[in-house]
Design goal:
- By secondary structure, the protein is an alpha+beta fold.
- Helices cover 60% and strands 9% of the residues.
- It has one domain (7-338).
- It has a 4-stranded antiparallel β-sheet, with helices on one face.
- It is globular and about 55 Å long.
């Protein structure tokens, strides 16, 4: 099947929903809801995927708003036209994969696409709905309605965050065409720290509690396995270098790279031309998260060793921790995420 977007980077949602359907239809309700992580295809479960896609959608709204503010382009009408065109291509992919895996009937596809066109995919009381879906799942409700209701819920957020990512791809590509790669890097650089704290503030204060992830073990599960919803995670490893512990986490695929780099390619730019619009945010978000979760008796360094957006075969994130007193880091992270200090950034002059 010929797809517009890269199957391994942009369409893991279809494989996950197919895995969910298979578990549901064979009567494995715990596997359907909680996941089957030990199988050849690690499926994270509807509880994690539903919450993750809500949070992902929030992040993409925030990132698009930031790009719109700092990346001025000459022709907003062209931006709108190309965004609609390339989003239409994703909808074609979505329909084809939904049919291949028998995920939605045509009536449901049409309803979802109408919501997408009218930009009301996430305009509903999703907090109440996900709570109801979780309660029904925990009660192991019989019949097919639970499966279709979960799928419809998740599809709305999958389609919404894809729409936002494609818009980011178009905007950044137009900006590079008009101003060059160095200008994109200069415009994004002052916003990275702001975004990294802001998105954690959104995740911990809004996305997680509103999707029922307030218990510490649930939060850890979402953080550990949520990315399996739309990314393939490689096997990480830990080594010692003197008194420093080096822990490497590997992402074999990245939906940000898949969407934004695909759009850049559609628009005639070289591979990696718009990587500055997403790779620094991933590293920054990881760094601020580690500043919050690593105990204060360790010092922290966090970096990207290889990245898909920079020509690598995978994204390898390196966390280096060393014994030492780092109370100040933890206090700052707690204040940034849970405090009411205004977060801000400077626009590139």
């Amino acid at each position: 099947m010929a797809l517009h977007y890269r199957k391994e980077q942009n369409h893991r949602w279809a494989e996950n929903l197919a895995a969910a359907k298979a578990a549901y239809e064979k009567g494995d309700r715990p596997g359907f809801y909680q996941g089957t992580l030990e199988t050849a295809f690690p499926y994270p479960g509807m509880k994690i995927m539903g919450a993750f896609w809500v949070a992902e959608n929030m992040e993409m709204h925030e990132r698009l708003s930031l790009h719109t503010d700092v990346l001025a382009i000459q022709d907003e009408a062209e931006y709108d036209r190309l965004s609609r065109l390339y989003y239409g291509w994703f909808l074609e992919d979505f329909a084809a994969l939904a049919e291949e895996h028998r995920l939605f009937d045509k009536k449901t596809i049409n309803a979802l696409f109408m919501m997408a066109i009218e930009e009301r995919l996430d305009q509903f009381d999703w907090e109440a709905e996900i709570a109801q879906l979780q309660a029904r799942s925990e009660a192991e409700e019989a019949g097919p309605a639970l499966l279709s209701d979960w799928f419809f819920f998740c599809a709305r957020f999958i389609l919404s965050y894809a729409q936002n990512l494609i818009r980011q791809g178009v905007r950044t590509a137009l900006y590079v065409k008009q101003n060059g790669k160095a200008a994109l890097e200069a415009a994004i650089r002052p916003t990275v720290t702001y975004f990294s704290w802001k998105i954690n503030r959104i995740f911990f204060n809004e996305a997680m509690p509103k999707t029922g992830f307030s218990d510490l073990s649930d939060v850890i599960s979402l953080g550990s396995y949520g990315m399996l919803s739309d990314q393939a995670v490689g096997k990480g490893y830990e080594t010692k270098n003197g008194n420093t512990t080096e822990k490497r986490s590997i992402l074999s695929t990245c939906q940000l790279y898949g969407f934004i780099d695909s759009v850049a390619t559609f628009m005639g730019l070289e591979k990696g031309a718009t990587s500055a619009a997403y790779c620094p945010y991933c590293v920054g978000h990881g760094r601020t998260t580690m500043h919050f979760v690593v105990p204060p008796d360790r010092t922290v360094r966090y970096s990207l060793e290889t990245g898909l957006g920079y020509g690598g075969k995978e994204c390898t994130f390196l966390l280096e921790t060393t014994p030492g007193d780092d109370d100040a880091r933890c206090e700052e992270a707690t204040a940034k995420i849970f405090g009411d200090e205004p977060l801000s950034y400077q626009k590139e002059a």
